[in-house]
Design goal:
Elements: H1 3-12, H2 18-25, H3 27-33, H4 36-47, H5 56-96
Helix pairs in contact: 1-2, 2-5
């Protein structure tokens, strides 16, 4: 059984994770078509199944989850490399920062002046 037949049977059985499998298998075609609705139409023709059998919102959700995973994987790499350099610069900033106090001759006197 090839991938196309497997996905067709899996989709018709409404198997768990079928849309994530579709996104993984057909990622280049989804990127080419750009819109989930267009991809749905293409997939229905590709698998030779009725378009109504492909849930558009589930397909879109699987695509969004895939994009989040890719974005998180990309940010993790850059965040780790920036984290160490950012940590050093923030440490330097914290050590050099001093809080200022308004001048006061007597600590017991109130600094609030009544009008």
């Amino acid at each position: 059984m090839n991938t196309k037949e497997f996905i067709k049977e899996y989709l018709l059985d409404n198997g768990y994770g079928v849309y994530a499998t579709i996104v993984d298998a057909y990622r280049p075609q989804m990127a080419f078509l750009k819109k989930t609705a267009r991809f749905r139409r293409w997939l229905a023709e590709e698998l030779d199944i009725p378009i109504e059998k492909i849930n558009l919102s589930s397909l879109n959700s699987a695509l969004q989850q895939q994009r989040k995973k890719e974005a998180k994987a990309g940010l993790t790499v850059t965040a780790n490399s920036n984290f160490t350099s950012g940590e050093n610069s923030s440490t330097r900033q914290k050590s050099g920062f001093k809080f200022s106090k308004p001048p006061s001759g007597d600590d017991k006197n109130s600094r609030i002046q009544e009008m």
